[in-house]
Design a protein that fits this description.
This protein is an alpha/beta fold and 186 residues long. The chain is 50% helix and 18% strand. The chain has a 6-stranded parallel β-sheet, with helices on both faces. The chain is globular. It starts with 7 loop residues before the first strand and ends with a strand.
Length: 186
């Protein structure tokens, strides 16, 4: 217990689901947790759950589809805690099942902006913060749809394939700088 004491972890999409469980687990292990999400009510609820169990957490409203929002979240994290040690890029969305021929451009852009651009933007701003903290870890949440495809969910599958590729490239780029980058595919 408390293996992450005095470390700072940021989790996007932490207002519910996998993100909330991840944020809670970081807190159980002793980390101060930044709960980053566009859902203010859910984010506040995650913070309350963490604090009720004796943990430390802060909610920062974050839209991962907007680079300035991601950058602001990282800056606020550093201002509040002085460092960043771990980041989990979990925020994501899906699409209603439909054949690729029925997917319109707005739907494609919406899913890929949140899922793929959100992870790229997260790493773009997280990696320098991790380097300033003498290294750290990033975990990108992809999906089994990012390995084997997902009929009817082309935008989602493509975005999750992209996350796997982004992760592999960033892992190779920063391995010698004490920044580990991995993906999980639930």
């Amino acid at each position: 217990m408390y293996q992450l004491k005095e470390s700072v972890a940021l989790v996007t999409g932490a207002a519910s689901g996998i993100g909330r469980e991840t944020a809670t687990r970081f807190a159980e292990e002793g980390a101060s947790v930044v709960v980053a999400d566009i859902d203010t009510d859910g984010g506040a609820e995650t913070v309350t759950q963490i604090e009720d169990c004796g943990g430390t957490a802060t909610f920062i409203e974050t839209n991962v589809g907007r680079l300035e929002s991601i950058q602001s979240t990282i800056e606020t994290t550093i201002d509040r805690y002085g460092r960043l040690d771990c980041a989990v890029n979990n925020a994501a969305t899906g699409n209603e099942p439909a054949p690729i021929t029925n997917i319109d451009e707005d739907e494609w852009d919406r899913v890929n902006t949140i899922n793929q651009k959100g992870v790229w933007g997260g790493m773009k701003h997280q990696i320098p913060a991790l380097q300033d903290s003498d290294g750290g870890t990033i975990v990108n949440v992809a999906s089994m749809a990012g390995i084997r495809g997902s009929p009817g969910r082309t935008p989602y599958g493509a975005s999750k394939h992209g996350i796997v590729g982004l992760t592999k490239s960033a892992a190779l780029e920063f391995a010698d700088q004490n920044v580990r980058v991995n993906a999980v595919c639930p």
